[in-house]
Amino acid sequence: MTIQAEAPKSAQPQLPHAGERKWQDYFTFNTDHKVIGIQYLVTSFAFFSIGGVMADVLRTELRTPASDFISPELYNQVLTLHGTIMIFLWIVPAGAGFANYLIPLMIGARDMAFPKMNAMAFWMVPPAGILLVLSILVEAPQSGWTSYPPLSLMTGKVGEGIWILTLLILGTSSILGGINFFTTIIKMRVPSMKLTSMPLFCWAMLSTSALILIGTPVLAGALLLLGFDLIAGTNFFNPTGGGDPVVYQHMFWFYSHPAVYIMILPLFGAISEIIPVHSRKPIFGYLAIAYSSLAISFLGLIVWAHHMFTSGTPAWLRMFFMITTMVIAVPTGIKVFSWLATMWGGKIALNSAMLFAMGFVGEFVIGGISGVMVASVPFDIHVHDTYFIVAHMHYVLFGGSVFGIYAAIYHWYPKMTGRMMNEPLGIAHFTLTLVGTNLTFMPMHALGMQGMNRRVAMYDPQFQSLNEICTAGAYVLAVSTLPFFVNAIWSWSKGVPAGDNPWNALTLEWQTTSPPAIENFETLPVLTGGPYDYGVEDFPDDMLPPLTSPELQPDSSAFS
Amino acid sequence: MLAGIALTLASLWYGQNHGLMPVEASKDAALVDDLFNAMMTVGAGIFFLVEGVILVCIFKFRRKKGDTTDGPPIEGNIPLEILWTAIPVVIVLVIGVYSFEIYRVEGGFDPEAAEQPAIVQVAMLPGSGLEAGLMDAQPAPKGMKHHSHMALGVGGSPESAQNAPDLTVNVLGLQYAWIFTYPDSGVTAGELHIPVGKDIKLTIKAQDVIHAFWLPQFRLKQDAIPGQDAELRFKPTLAGEYPIVCAELCGAYHGAMASKLYVMEQDDYDAWLQQQVAALDEPQTVASKPDEINADAAYLAPFASQFADQTGVDAELLQQLHPLHNHELMKAMQPPVDPAAVSALPAA
Ligand SMILES: [Cu+2]
Description:
The complex is a heterodimer.
Chain A: E1 2-3, H1 33-61, H2 72-107, H3 115-138, H4 151-154, H5 157-187, H6 200-232, H7 245-279, H8 286-299, H9 315-327, H10 329-343, H11 352-375, H12 377-383, H13 387-417, H14 423-450, H15 464-494, E2 526-527, H16 553-556
Antiparallel strand pairs in A: 1-2
Chain B: H1 2-17, H2 27-60, H3 78-106, H4 117-124, H5 130-136, E1 153-154, E2 167-174, E3 177-182, E4 187-189, E5 192-195, E6 200-206, E7 211-215, E8 220-224, E9 230-234, E10 240-246, E11 258-264, H6 266-281, H7 283-287, H8 290-300, H9 315-321, H10 327-333, H11 339-347
Parallel strand pairs in B: 1-9, 2-6, 5-11
Antiparallel strand pairs in B: 2-3, 3-4, 6-9, 7-8, 7-10, 10-11
Helix pairs in contact in B: 1-2, 2-3, 4-5
């Protein structure tokens, strides 16, 4: 349990109001981590919408076997932009948004370690993203988000050049963010907070930052060499000049496999925060979850060639990468079972945040199971580059990351805005998302195994009926975002006032005002207990027991 | 307890009856399916367990209205945590060893897959049969060693790896078609015909960009990488007509890059081959028959015929494909010329 030693609640309303945030601040080079966090989140949701429209364009094309909605060239452009946007402009910056907003609050710091660098990292994202999106007006990249040479060297210099430039900028932004998160977590914790008493979200971000810092420079190297091949006519990867296209694949996946963990680990961390609060139980196995993040981070660096089992990878390497990939199931399983054990026997408030968190566990585990399957070389040889892989990665990144982002928004929205989100709208959002996700991605497993290859604008007519189901699901997912956006925008000004700690949570971000003052804490807090001591009896005498807030909790859940 | 038994039975049943895999056209395909069924059984078990626990939590551990107290402060349980660490470790080890074994039986470790470029050259020289090529194969001179490529693809099964395959076909992927040449007879075709029950070796090359040669009914796939040869070796056990799919994004018409694999009875295959060889010997007769060329068009992009106007596989290309006009293609079919290897040849 955590308390603010010298700032009891009664003192908080007297905080100086001179430092209030103005809405204009969100459009400036502001160094406040909370402003930057919200900038990241709003930006990422904007790109999520664009990438989502593109997904539905792709699904509309795939409703019928023939290429009859858009031209196959345009299809490949939209396909490339969809992948690139969803990864580099949606999930990664959304994770960075939560990290920026939450890390200083969770560790009792007044800001990030390098605030100016932080603002700089954010302001690289919108121009790069806009450049990439607008490329569709001239010539968009069309060799997939993996951009394998020699295809990427042959499909249009302008589009490919824009793609490389965009990713270099976004990669740089990501590195700056990673340096900031890492330093802040290591150096800026309140003195009373040991590493092993910090919230699990911080452990997850520590692991994520390590991956960013080790992986991204290698991607940058691959992109630079690809750029030379493209523009200067060098032959690093171009086989017609003696280059080796497989080397690009190694360098690309050395970053891009860890990128999956860069996208999922922050949400693992968020789920580890959300589940105990709404289950009113301590997190089950704190240390196991913390260290499993580090284990995933380390193992994530030595599995990249499992994307290349059918490529230029010799037999023994295929076996090595199969084993390392499968071993990742162990730390991931530890997390899943720990979350289940945290919920088990709890007093679960079935509000939108918790529903999405439970949905996260239930959907992610499907992606995890298919992940172990595709790690097996003989099976992967069959399903590699098919719709089975499309299904697998969307269960991880949509069923996982996107559910996690939604859960985190519902959970921390009251802290960020001082207002509650509307519960009926939230539950409608959850129901539509859950139905849409499974409708869209479940049939893809069968499609892939039956023989449908991925990244195709036209396909064998025998696959049409399942594709129609997928397309219908994609439309449901499009509709599902409407209640969410209405809710998020409407609640910002009209939502029920949340108070400082509506969930009665124990981590430090809830021990200050909502939204927090510019300097976060008037007096820096002192820890007297762990971040998840729910139901623990021995509170200090001057603290109220961490009851569920009677005014807000019962109404905040339509189910309880 | 009861739930545990139900869960086990349900996963055992689903692991065998998912019906997700296409026809098995070789013994290796059946082996891969056994492996998948095993993984599906375990996977279904984990799936039912996790979703079951979530459902119980939703219905049983939902907070009652008006209850504002916290749950029991359980912070962990070391034996339980060891259990759910150890069980996945055992599961992935078993799946790992099982996958390793299937991969070995399939021929994934066939060292002969590491062809020396010199041998490929000899084997492909017109007039010299494959057998001769293999017999002539001598240890490559020391200086050449690093020119040879790694073993790529799936080779012969451990029993047959030492023997020469019954039939070798060269496969060339190009935007957006597969072209098959039979080095023993000089036949070139846009579809792959092979005899059933024979040990088949495909040498896979790419001309322009990376493609991937996928035989779904054989559970086999190998990227065709420009400048790097790969192989697939397998024994079809079920005659029939199967799709050949390109699985690596190779351009706008990637989805239409498809062909057919005909696994034929030996007699039918011999008849087909004879017909092709005859066409090769008497090019004039065939060239004067435009119908035949159209027939080529039909088989070259069979299931993509509906997109024939878009595929880029047009009449011109087909004419090139035709034996009379295929000099360009025959040149393309040769492995990328490695000057070092060529100059080293006479010396070896
Ligand atoms: Cu292709």
